Amino acid sequence: MRDLLPFLRIYRQHWLSLSIGLLLAFVTLVAGMGLLSLSGWFLSAAAVAGLAAATRDTFNYMTPAGGVRFFSIIRTASRWGERVVSHDATFRVLTRLRVWFWQKLSPLSTGTLAGFRQADLLNRLVTDIDAMDHVYLRLITPIGAALLSCAGLVFFLSFFDSELALTLGAILLAGMLALPLVFYFAGRKPGQALIAEKSSLRTRLVDYLDGQAELQMFAAAPKALDELQQAEQALIRAQARMARVSGLANASVQLLSGWTLTLMLWLAGHGVGGATPDPITALMVFATLASFEALLPLAGAFQHLSTSLTSARRLNEILQEAKAPEWGEEQQHASAGSLQIRDLTFTYPDQTEPVLRGYSLQLKAGEKLALLGQTGCGKSTLMGLLTREWNPQAGEILLDGKPLTHYGEGALRASFSVVSQRVHLFADTLRGNLKLAAPDASDERLIKVLEQVGLSSLLDNPDELAEGGLDAWLGDGGRPLSGGERRRIGLARALLHDAPLWLLDEPTEGLDSQTEREIMALLFKLGADRTLLLISHRLLGLEQMDRIALMEEGRIRLCAPHAELLSDDYYRSLHQRLAPV
């Protein structure tokens, strides 16, 4: 139960609506008990009164009939109100839980989340948080309403016969203690399996949809689809096991209800409260039958408790294992963008061989430097260290003469712009995607930046407010745009961000030669007054860089201008093979 504590604190923020839902659930149960008990007494009393002419004419039919109608209306209204209020409160709690969990998750870097797959994180954010609704809808509300209503019923029946009331109360109390405990253990493994299979299916489905291009290319789609169907069947089997436990729980409550009803009928058959058998006997029996309406949800509540506990445990794994980086107190961002890297050493978790070995590099303010190297030499790792996705085990990185660790998160993010080969576009308008880099930018500034990066064509639409211009809908991933247009939007974001240091990570990868030349020309033009660090394995336009650094096995092998490097046999052969014609 300790795993639920962080989430129960969120529930306290909505205590009023949750309490109203609990109160309405209690009223619903009381009205149901009153309706069935009064109906049983009324039918019996009316039948007895009808046996004799004297009582037939004097019996008050109107008051009990009005009571039956009253309880019927109250039960219907409170049931509807309880559903509306409790579900609305639950949805608000789940919304708050998602926001709270996302606030905990969003500061974490890629490095701290490296042990979790993206599909698994999505599953925890959606399915595991959804399972938290069991805590209120199937646990807190049923238990609270059952205890209050059954206690009230026993107190009411004690006015007629205290022994019968205590007998019924003892049976109900035993049922409230035994049934939840039994079906918690019965549903623990099926509940854990249900969460695991849901997670597995969602992860496989996301991987299957995300990797369609590669699966089709390597003719692996049928195998992946077969594995997806197997995961689906495993989930169906887990759901069937849980359904069997639910059926057994309901049958057990019904069986206990029947036995208790038989016992109460036998005990009350000789009269209630020492009197001869009369309609109060029927009231006592029907009240017993009504009391089990409160007991019925309890077995299911604890049956699903294991699901909520498993989900809470999975969410806590991320909150406990993934720690956000510690940021400094410097709130002023860098103004020049100079970099100094000294004796940097970094090894990925669970690996023994370091990726960077005593890496040192200096980048002056306003300088343009290209970093070349084969795949795996540590270029992208360096980028991750510069953006603090990872922290080095040794050495330091200075930005404008200050260690990166001295900068606050906002100050560090404002000090550089990252332009990579993967420019993510959200399912939003062109304006919305650009304003991610500058939320306060005016439309005039956005239009100017688009013209600077050569995207004026996106603005050439006579109906700008509907289908074109800044209100053009880009869709998920910017599907209507070409690869070159997406890269240009990445450049537009960098301009809007207006940082002194540009970190360019393979910005032209995957583009055709003509588009690549255009993008590189834009980079040099728009970044003329900025410090540029270009990470690439392409040689197009590198003669315009101030210096070129060659990386090998986590170190800088050579660092000099293009003309000087041509005297090196390795660089000259590399240039002859890879330089564009």
UniProtKB/TrEMBL annotation:
It comes from Aeromonas lusitana. It is a multi-pass membrane protein. The keyword Cell division does not apply. Belongs to the ABC transporter superfamily. Cysteine exporter (TC 3.A.1.129.1) family. This is Glutathione/L-cysteine transport system ATP-binding/permease protein CydC. The chain crosses the membrane at residues 20-53, 139-160, 166-186, 247-268, 280-305. It catalyses: L-cysteine(in) + ATP + H2O = L-cysteine(out) + ADP + phosphate + H(+); glutathione(in) + ATP + H2O = glutathione(out) + ADP + phosphate + H(+). It is found in: Cell inner membrane. Residues 20-311 form the ABC transmembrane type-1 domain. Its main location: membrane. Keywords: Amino-acid transport, ATP-binding, Cell inner membrane, Cell membrane, Coiled coil, Membrane, Nucleotide-binding, Translocase, Transmembrane, Transmembrane helix, Transport.
